[in-house]
Write a structure and sequence with these properties.
The chain has helices at about 10-30, 55-60, 65-75, 75-80, 85-90, 100, 115-125, 125-135, 135-140, 150-155, 180-185, 190-210, 215-230, 240-270. By secondary structure, it is mainly α.
Length: about 270
């Protein structure tokens, strides 16, 4: 009777895969103490290769809520900016072994507690917003209620979008659920912030018309810095704090506009017959 050895191929392959996977897992665990990843460094998923999006490849098949989270993340500013699952949740995305990919040894963190959200988002990525958030009206007035607004209250978690002034709105699902229109109109400094944002857009447009010269890049860096500082003001949630922090930004923007206006006038005089 002739033996059909082909029937054993799947068993051999499965056994080899198990042995190789176990060996890799042991190597991973042995190396974790000294790995840079254990310290929360660059996301391994940023590397090009077969391990790209390892987490989402599995999660998108695990049920409605988990697959929704993958879709939300892929449509977020985090995804387009190269912020991957392990950037926030830790773990080892290069491993397909659950105890390694979501292992404590690799600093895996599941859902943070509400009070832990600022520490989850802030120190490593959003330092300026984190430092402001530690002492604002939201964090000061809510401890006795057993709940307080945090990063995800306004920005969401997996579906985080590019920040703009439209986010500060009663119509959006940010300020409206907690604040009435009367309170909003009385307290907000939004119009002042909108004016400064518009000035920055105008300065960028004016800068593009400026002839190429060494000072052009210096001006662009200064506008970028003012824009970043201005965006962070929304985290103060206090009119006096916003005004105090906004004054030096407005001064800087006025100075930049003066330089651009002068350069524009000089260029026109030079081109005049």
């Amino acid at each position: 009777m002739k033996m059909n050895y082909w029937c054993y191929v799947p068993i051999v392959v499965a056994t080899l895969s198990l042995c190789i996977g176990t060996a890799r897992a042991q190597e991973d665990v042995q190396e974790v103490e000294g790995s840079s990843y254990a310290q929360g460094s660059e996301s391994w998923q940023k590397l090009d290769g077969p391990f790209f999006e390892t987490c989402s490849m599995c999660h998108q098949r695990l049920g409605e809520r988990l697959s929704e989270q993958v879709a939300e993340w892929r449509g977020s500013v985090h995804f387009s900016s190269g912020v991957f699952c392990d950037s926030c949740h830790g773990g080892n995305p290069m491993s397909t072994i659950l105890t390694v990919s979501m292992g404590e040894a690799y600093g895996f963190k599941s859902d943070p507690s509400p009070e832990g959200v600022p520490n989850f988002c802030g120190p490593s990525c959003h330092e300026s917003a984190y430092s402001v958030n530690e002492a604002n009206i939201h964090t000061e007035d809510f401890p006795d209620e057993g709940w307080e607004p945090n990063c995800v209250t306004c920005h969401g978690s997996h579906e985080v979008q590019e920040v703009n002034m439209d986010l500060v709105s009663l119509e959006e699902n940010t300020c409206g659920p907690c604040h009435s229109r009367a309170f909003y109109l009385r307290q907000t400094e939004k119009e002042s912030l909108v004016d400064s944002h518009q000035l920055i857009e105008d300065l960028y447009a004016q800068l593009e018309m400026m002839p190429e010269m060494p000072v052009k890049n210096t001006i662009r860096v200064r506008i970028d810095k003012a824009y970043k500082d201005l965006r962070g003001l929304a985290h103060y949630f206090n009119r006096r704090q916003i005004r105090a922090a906004k004054t030096p930004i407005d001064t800087e923007l006025g100075y930049i506009k003066g330089i651009l206006d002068f350069s524009e006038s000089a260029a026109l005089r030079q081109s005049a017959p």
